[in-house]
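WARN retry 2 of 3 for item q-0093 after timeout on previous attempt; input resubmitted unchanged.
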Amino acid sequence: MARIFLFFALIPLLLSGCVKNEFTLDFRLAPEINGTYRFLYHASSSRQSFIVESVAVVNAGKGNLTSPAKNPTVLYIFSPSSNEPRLVCWVEGGTELKFSGDSPDPIEWKAEGNRLTEAISNWRLENLKILKTGNSKEINTAVARYVMGNKDNPLSSILLLTYFDRREDESRFLKLWNSLEKGSRRDEIFNAFAPADIQEDIRTPGKIKGIVVVPYSARFDSVCRRDTLPNPRSDAKLSLIYFRINDSDGSVENLDTLKSLRDKYDSKTLGIAEVSLEGDSMVWSNSLRMDTLNGIDRYWLPGGINNPRLPEMGVRRADFFVLADRKGKLLYRGGSVSEAAGMARKRLGK
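OK item q-0093 returned
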């Protein structure tokens, strides 16, 4: 409720008496549909930026609401029973969004208001069966199929930033994003998203900076020591760094792959390090006392996932891999251990 009060309190700051600094939601649904639909978007101007979260009430299929927005933004609409966005729209000042349909689920609604919103709506309805499955691989394939054939279309940028699951296939996302052409308006559309919408920086750094970590030791005074990754003193041809938390998804597969790499390459050929993103160093060190993984350097990153230097390596979440050469040139970043290992094997030529 506090967010709703904030929303109304900030309306005068954004509107300033100009109709172009607002947009309208107009629901024209089947008369048997009643419900409260949450919506969320990033409101910004040259002086401020914040997330607006509020609700629209639909009674007997009808509802109307005006909301402030000066700069272009992306609007998410949720169903009463879902915590995940069901419908995405592109909003510009003065947009009149109209929603129609016979279902209480927004994923099945037709959305109108501007060309890009209508293009998103058409794509969503054409791929409704796939979207309803929630299968990330199938959805990513559907998005990729469209993007590869429409690299000069702004819809491609929207689909990549809203429907494509980057955790499922980071490298594929980057290839598709970097293939977009001028007509895709990718930079403009990227800037319309709130920072929280973009879980990782799209720009992949060409060269990563070192990050200070604590090496593991059975002694409790190990926190007095510090190392840097990638290790500037290392003579290894490549460095593979695995960022993880205890019991994270895929940890068994990831560790098995790292073991196989260590069995194949010595530490002067491939340096392998595991970096814990646990917030508490004791949680990390205690778990390692029961660990049987050998031949891999183990570290803890102070501050865990909230360490401010972590984004400089292009890392914003756990279960993430970074592969770099001895000069710090980034060769791979992403969540696929098989792709990271494949790139390492390809580079080492063995």
